[in-house]
Write a structure and sequence with these properties.
Number of helices: 4
Number of strands: 0
Strand content: under 5%
Order of helices and strands: HHHH
Helix content: 25-40%
Oligomer: single chain
Structural class: mainly alpha
Radius of gyration: 15 Å
Distance between the termini: 21 Å
Length: 83
Amino acid sequence: MSTTDQSHAVGGSVVPDKAQEKLPKGVEDNVPNALHDTGDSGSKSHATGDSKVPKPLQEAVPKSVEKALPNAIHDTSGLPDSK
């Protein structure tokens, strides 16, 4: 994992400046905006293939809900197992 030497925050942050500069954007984006505002809503689909689920719904539900659906309906087979 490479460092960025810059913060991706666009708003307020309680994360120390030095940590912000060293964290990859993906890590910063996963910190709640209430603590470290990157402007990313965090809403995204976790589908790695075809999905019959409407995009706004995919983006609104947690990853665990998407993974619970059968791959024939919402394919998340490309996601690593989180155990």
